């Protein structure tokens, strides 16, 4: 027999073959005799019952009544029902009558068990009908047992089963009320009380915002004030470094080539060229091929093709060309480095391997020419697209600026960047600023040649709009990149220090931090644009006089570009020297402190 607490159900199954019960008196006497024997068996086992153990731990007996299904297999369901019920009642009554004789432990076990009502459930299993009986709580019998004069000792544990199910800790309402007595008030408060508490209970946005600290405050002021001017200063210095390289290509390189040719004509002896001279001849060949091919390009045809485009809008064309411009800029830098490496090998190789280095230099030169020409055509198409937007009267320039700049913010701001990536991104912005300047020069040349009526004022307004938008977008982009990636404004000062060291040809920590700019393609575009302007202003004289005016204009242009090169180069040198010394002194004072 299985003894359990009253809150649980005692289930047992009896297989019955016959649904009829024995109605004879002899059968009843036999059942009473068996019940009395089971009661005596219960009294004999009283000494081995532990009151602090569960009924199942006390031997698995339920008041001495063993319900063995095998003993009742031959009887009917009603017979078993009557037998169990009468045996249970007899056990309870006789146990109460002999309470004084029964030990305390057994008496506690008997009283602690709530006998319930038997319910019969019929179910079929295979070919026979099975009967399952389940003992459930009888509230009336429980009340009658509690109302009896028998009292439990105070030192014995209460074995009465609770009438309510125990809840889990998270749903224990009594525990919650004990910990927070005001929780019921918060649940049952009125709308007016709730609103008054919200008014006088701290910050109105306390549920969605938190209290900041000094670090958050510094980050706010870094984003608004400290970082923008450092970022713009770095981009501007990078722009002038690119401009200085561009002027070197147009002034220093031709001077070196003329000196090499003059030495060859003077000595009339061929001498192996140095690395610098071979590199200059290679760049000159690249620029010459680019200018010749661009001169054969009809700009008016490209202009009308872009302006009459109905499927793809102008700002889409400009964005596509800008992406290819950045790709070509990166690739051409690697190609030019390869060309300079081959030039160094050709200048210093022994005579046995000179054929190998010549073929290597020729292959690198051909690749550099092709890459530079492709980049030149991309820049020319981009300049024509910007010119089309400026001269249009349907707000095409505004649409171009909005789409291009905010697409740039979207593609850069919400990304994770390392310090080196931000460094490279700043240099890309400097190169882009220089490319935009070359596009503006193209637009100016086109207006000089083809514009009618007063155009200079509107040109200045449009150019100012382009530069201001570009500057504002770069500041916003870098400010929020620094905010999201936790980059301090002092990092941009370190970037500027590296750029100044590059200007002074000082050794930096890594080559990846150097500004890489290839001015060959922009130089080809500028020469292609300015040549028609000079041609339009030449006087209609005989050929000798035309050659004279061409040489004069070329000499004047070279002198102006050389003066500008000297001015910008010396200014960059002086600024770089001052800034590097300043950073060095600051680090020295910091280490002393």
What is the structure about, briefly put?
With 593 residues, the protein is mainly α. 67% of the residues lie in helices and 4% in strands. The protein has helices at residues 25-44, 77-97, 104-111, 139-146, 173-179, 183-187, 191-200, 214-267, 275-295, 299-307, 314-348, 354-391, 396-412, 419-450, 456-484, 490-503, 520-536, 543-592; strands spanning 10-15, 117-125, 128-136.
Supply database-style keywords:
disordered N terminus, mainly alpha, 593 residues, 3-stranded antiparallel β-sheet, single chain
Structure description:
This protein has 593 residues and is mostly helical. It has a domain at 216-507 and 518-588. The chain is built from 18 helices and three strands. It has helices spanning 25-44, 77-97, 104-111, 139-146, 173-179, 183-187, 191-200, 214-267, 275-295, 299-307, 314-348, 354-391, 396-412, 419-450, 456-484, 490-503, 520-536, 543-592, and strands at 10-15, 117-125, 128-136. Strands 1-3-2 form a three-stranded antiparallel beta sheet, with helices on one face. A hairpin with a 2-residue loop joins strand 2 (117-125) and strand 3. Helix 10 (299-307) packs across helix 12 and helix 14 packs parallel to helix 17. The longest helix is centred in the middle third of the chain and has 54 residues, at 214-267. Residues 1-22 and 51-167 have low confidence and may be disordered.
């Amino acid at each position: 027999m299985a003894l359990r607490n009253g809150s649980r159900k005692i289930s047992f199954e009896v297989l019955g073959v016959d649904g009829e019960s024995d109605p004879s008196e002899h059968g009843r006497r036999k059942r009473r005799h068996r019940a009395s024997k089971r009661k005596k068996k219960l009294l004999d086992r009283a000494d081995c019952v532990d009151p602090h153990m569960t009924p199942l731990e006390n031997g698995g007996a339920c008041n001495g009544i063993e319900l063995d299904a095998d003993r009742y297999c031959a009887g009917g369901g009603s017979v078993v029902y009557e037998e169990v019920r009468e045996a249970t009642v007899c056990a309870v009554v006789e146990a109460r009558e002999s309470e004084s004789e029964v030990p305390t432990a057994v008496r506690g076990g008997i009283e602690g068990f709530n006998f319930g009502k038997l319910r019969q459930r019929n179910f079929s299993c295979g070919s026979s009908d099975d009967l399952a009986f389940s003992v459930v709580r009888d509230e009336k019998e429980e009340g009658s047992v509690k109302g009896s004069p028998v009292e439990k000792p105070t030192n014995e544990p209460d074995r009465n089963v609770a009438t309510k199910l125990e809840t889990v800790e998270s749903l224990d309402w009594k525990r919650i009320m004990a910990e927070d007595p005001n929780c019921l008030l918060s649940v049952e408060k009125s709308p007016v009380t709730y609103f008054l508490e919200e008014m006088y209970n701290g910050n109105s946005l306390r549920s969605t915002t938190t209290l900041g600290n000094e670090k958050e405050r510094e980050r706010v002021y870094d984003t608004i004030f400290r970082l923008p001017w450092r970022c713009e200063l770095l981009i501007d210095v990078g722009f002038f470094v690119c401009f200085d390289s561009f002027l070197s290509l147009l002034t220093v390189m031709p001077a070196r080539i003329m000196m090499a040719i003059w030495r060859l004509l003077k000595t009339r002896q061929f001498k192996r060229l140095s690395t610098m001279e071979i590199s200059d001849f290679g760049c000159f060949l690249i620029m010459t091929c680019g200018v010749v091919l661009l001169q054969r390009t009809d700009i008016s045809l490209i202009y009308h093709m872009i302006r009459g485009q109905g499927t793809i809008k102008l700002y889409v064309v400009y964005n596509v060309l800008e992406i290819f411009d950045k790709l070509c800029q990166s690739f051409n830098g690697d190609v030019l480095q390869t060309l300079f490496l081959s030039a160094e090998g050709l200048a210093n190789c022994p005579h046995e391997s000179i054929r190998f280095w010549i073929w290597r230099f020729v292959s690198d030169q051909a690749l550099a020419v092709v890459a530079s020409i492709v980049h030149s055509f991309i820049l020319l198409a981009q300049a024509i697209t910007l010119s089309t937007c400026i001269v249009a009267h349907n707000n095409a320039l505004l649409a171009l600026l909005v789409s291009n700049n905010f697409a740039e913010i979207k593609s850069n701001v919400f990304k994770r960047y390392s310090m080196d990536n931000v460094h490279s991104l700043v240099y890309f912005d400097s190169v882009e600023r220089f490319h935009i300047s070359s596009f503006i020069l193209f637009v100016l040349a086109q207006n000089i040649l083809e514009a009618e009526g007063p155009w200079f004022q509107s040109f200045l307004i449009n150019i100012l709009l382009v530069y201001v938008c570009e500057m504002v977008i770069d500041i916003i982009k870098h400010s929020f990149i620094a905010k999201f990636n936790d980059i301090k404004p002092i990092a941009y000062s370190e970037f500027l220090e590296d750029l100044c060291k590059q200007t002074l040809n000082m050794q930096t920590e890594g080559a990846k931090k150097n500004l890489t700019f290839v001015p060959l393609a922009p130089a080809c575009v500028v020469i292609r644009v300015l040549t028609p302007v000079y041609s339009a202003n030449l006087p209609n004289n005989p050929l000798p006089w035309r050659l004279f005016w061409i040489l004069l204009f070329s000499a004047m242009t070279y002198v102006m570009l050389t003066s500008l090169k000297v001015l910008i180069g010396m200014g960059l040198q002086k600024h770089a020297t001052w800034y590097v010394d300043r950073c060095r002194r600051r680090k020295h004072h910091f280490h002393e402190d």
